[in-house]
Automatic annotation (TrEMBL), chain A:
Belongs to the binding-protein-dependent transport system permease family. LivHM subfamily. It holds the Pfam family BPD_transp_2. The chain crosses the membrane at residues 12-37, 57-83, 95-115, 139-158, 189-213, 225-248, 260-277. It comes from Sulfitobacter dubius. InterPro entries: ABC_transp_permease, BCAA_transport_permease. It is found in: Cell membrane. This is High-affinity branched-chain amino acid transport system permease protein LivH. CDD domains: TM_PBP1_LivH_like. The lineage of its organism: Bacteria, Pseudomonadati, Pseudomonadota, Alphaproteobacteria, Rhodobacterales. It is a multi-pass membrane protein. Keywords: Amino-acid transport, Cell membrane, Membrane, Transmembrane, Transmembrane helix, Transport. Its main location: membrane. The gene is livH_3.
Length: 285, 233
C-alpha cells in the first residue's frame, strides 16, 4: 500500500509537468485550431535559460525562473506574431508545416546555444520528508505545489476574468465573440504568452527534477498531445485530469512492471479510454 | 443615428448588395424585410464589420465606421443579436450574459445581469446550465439578454424568430416590443414580415440586393405588392 502511494506521489509530480504542457497546447488548439508542436522545445528553451542564468551568471534560482518566465511571455507573443499569424487564414496544412519547422528551428537553437550535453538545474532542496512511510523529496513536493498553484491560477484566470472568458468565447464561437466586442487579434497573443510561460515552468520542473537534453522537448510535446486526446481536445479540466492520469499510470507502470514499458502502458491506457470515450475523459461528445 | 449610403458588398467576385441607402433615427424601430437571399443579413454584417463593404459609407452618430473592426463597432455602441442565436454552448447562461458586457468597465454589470433575469425569468432558472443545453426559445431569450448587456445605443436583431415554434415567435415579438419601450433604437431583420411590420416604425423592402420600397410599417403592410408577396393575402 505504501509502495502504491509512493508511486502515486511520483506520478503526480510528473503528471503536474504534463498538465502544464497540455494546458498550453489545449488553449492554443482551442482558439486557433493549431497543433503547436514546437511547444515542448520552447518549454525546454525556458529550462535551459534558467540553467544558464543560475550556473553561468550566478543568478539566484527563483529570480532566474522569474526572468525565464518573462522571456517566455515575450517569446509566446513573438511566436504568434511571426510564425502563426501569417498563416492564420491559410489552409490548415500551412500552420502544421510552420509548427514542424518551428520545432526544428527551436531544437537547433537550443543545441547551438546550450550544447548537446544533458543539463540539470542545480537546486539546494535536498531534504527528504517522510510521511507514514512515503518519502517525498523536498524538490518533488515544491514541483507538485507549484504545478497545483499554476493550474489553480490558470483556472481562476479563465473562469473569473473577462480576458479569460473572452478566450473561452473565441474558442466556442469566434464570430459571436467578435459581436461581444472581443478583439480577436489580441486574444491569440495573450494565449500564446500565457501558454509559453506555463511551458517554461514545465521546462524548469523537468530540468530540476530530471534533466534537459536535446529531444526531451519533442518527447514531452507528444505526451502533451496524448494528454489532450485523453482529456478531451480544448478542455482545460480535461488537460488536468488527463495529465494526472497519464503521470500516475506511468509511475505505477514503472514501479510495478518495468520502467522500460512505462510509455507503452501509458499509451495502452490512453487507447483503452478512447475506445470507450472517443471524446476523451472530459470532452463533450 | 445610423446612416448607410451607397453600400456595396461582395463575396469574392459576386456583388450581393448593389448600392443601398438606409437610415435609422434615434429611438426608432426599423425593419428590413424581403425574401431569403435578398441581402438583408449581408447588410447587417457589413454594418457590424463582419464582412467588408466594397463601396459606400456607414456612419454612426456622425462617425464613419465603414470597414472598422468588429470589436470597435461594438465599442461605438452597436450590438447585434445574431441569426441562429450563436450562444457560447459550453459556457453557462450566466457566463453568456456576462460575456455580453465584455467591453464595459462600470460597476453596474451585476445589476444588469439581475435585470435581464427579471426580464427573462427562465434565464434565472437556467443560470448555471450550459447554454447549449437550453431550448431554442430559451437560447433566443439568452441571445437577446446578452445583446442588451452591452447597453447598446443601437440593437440589431438578425432573424430572431428563425426556427422557433409559433408560440415562441409571438414571445420573441413581445420581447422586442419591450426592448423598444425601453427606448432602445432597433434595426430588425425578419423573414416573418407580418411580425416585423407590426413592430416597426419604418421598414425597407429588399429585393435581389436592392431596396425597392420604403415607408412606415403601416404603409408597407397595406402596400398591395408587399401584402401579396410577403404577407400572403
Amino acid at each position: 500500500m505504501v509502495e502504491v502511494l509512493q508511486q502515486i506521489i511520483n506520478g503526480i509530480a510528473i503528471g503536474g509537468v504534463y498538465v502544464l504542457i497540455a494546458l498550453g497546447l489545449t488553449t492554443v488548439f482551442g482558439i486557433l485550431g493549431i497543433a503547436h508542436f514546437a511547444h515542448g522545445s520552447v518549454s525546454m528553451f525556458g529550462g535551459y535559460l534558467t540553467f544558464f542564468f543560475v550556473t553561468s551568471w550566478g543568478i539566484p534560482l527563483l529570480l532566474a525562473i522569474l526572468i525565464a518566465l518573462l522571456v517566455g511571455l515575450v517569446l509566446g507573443v513573438l511566436i504568434e506574431l511571426l510564425a502563426y499569424r501569417p498563416v492564420r487564414d491559410a489552409n490548415h496544412i500551412n500552420a502544421f508545416i510552420v509548427a514542424l519547422g518551428l520545432t526544428m528551428m527551436v531544437e537547433g537553437i537550443n543545441l547551438e546555444l546550450f550544447g548537446h550535453e544533458q543539463v540539470v538545474i542545480p537546486t539546494d532542496f535536498s531534504r527528504v520528508f517522510n510521511i507514514g512511510g512515503v518519502t517525498i523529496p523536498e524538490l518533488r513536493l515544491y514541483v507538485i505545489l507549484a504545478a497545483a498553484l499554476l493550474i489553480a491560477a490558470m483556472t481562476v484566470f479563465v473562469e473569473r476574468t473577462k480576458t479569460g472568458q473572452a478566450i473561452r468565447a473565441v474558442a466556442e464561437n469566434r464570430d459571436a465573440a467578435i459581436l461581444m466586442g472581443v478583439n480577436v487579434k489580441t486574444i491569440p497573443l495573450v494565449v500564446f504568452a500565457i501558454s509559453t510561460a506555463l511551458g517554461v515552468c514545465a521546462g524548469v520542473m523537468v530540468g530540476s527534477l530530471f534533466a534537459i537534453a536535446p529531444g526531451i522537448g519533442e518527447g514531452l510535446v507528444v505526451k502533451g498531445f496524448a494528454v489532450l486526446i485523453l482529456g478531451g481536445l480544448g478542455s482545460i479540466p480535461g488537460a488536468v485530469v488527463g495529465g494526472l492520469v497519464l503521470g500516475i499510470t506511468e509511475a505505477l507502470a514503472a514501479g510495478f512492471i518495468s520502467s522500460a514499458y512505462k510509455d507503452v502502458i501509458a499509451f495502452v491506457v490512453m487507447i483503452s479510454v478512447l475506445l470507450f470515450r472517443p471524446q476523451g475523459l472530459m470532452g463533450k461528445a | 443615428m445610423l446612416n448607410v449610403s451607397n453600400l456595396r458588398v461582395s463575396y469574392g467576385a459576386i456583388e450581393v448588395i448593389h448600392g443601398i441607402d438606409l437610415q435609422v433615427n434615434q429611438g426608432e424601430c426599423v425593419a428590413l424585410i424581403g425574401a431569403n437571399g435578398a441581402g438583408k443579413s449581408s447588410t447587417l454584417k457589413a454594418i457590424c464589420g463582419l464582412v467588408p463593404a466594397t463601396a459606400g459609407t456607414i456612419e454612426f452618430e456622425g462617425q464613419d465606421i465603414t470597414n472598422q473592426s468588429g470589436h470597435s463597432i461594438v465599442k461605438a455602441g452597436i450590438t447585434m443579436c445574431p441569426e441562429g442565436r450563436q450562444v457560447f454552448p459550453q459556457m453557462t447562461t450566466l457566463q453568456n450574459l456576462r460575456m455580453g458586457a465584455y467591453p464595459r468597465k462600470d460597476a453596474e454589470q451585476a445589476a444588469d445581469v439581475e435585470e435581464m433575469m427579471d426580464m427573462f425569468p427562465i434565464l434565472r432558472d437556467r443560470a448555471h446550465q450550459a447554454a447549449g443545453t437550453l431550448s431554442g426559445g430559451e437560447q433566443e431569450m439568452l441571445a437577446i439578454g446578452r445583446a442588451l448587456m452591452a447597453r447598446p445605443k443601437l440593437c440589431i436583431f438578425d432573424e430572431p424568430s428563425l426556427g422557433l415554434a409559433p408560440k415562441i415567435v409571438a414571445e420573441v415579438g413581445e420581447t422586442i416590443a419591450r426592448v423598444k419601450e425601453m427606448g432602445k433604437t432597433i434595426l430588425l431583420v425578419e423573414q416573418n414580415s407580418a411580425m416585423a411590420l407590426r413592430l416597426a416604425d419604418r421598414a425597407y423592402l429588399f429585393e435581389a440586393g436592392e431596396i425597392v420600397l420604403s415607408g412606415t410599417g403601416a404603409e408597407l403592410q397595406s402596400h398591395p405588392d408587399v401584402a401579396k408577396a410577403y404577407l400572403g393575402h
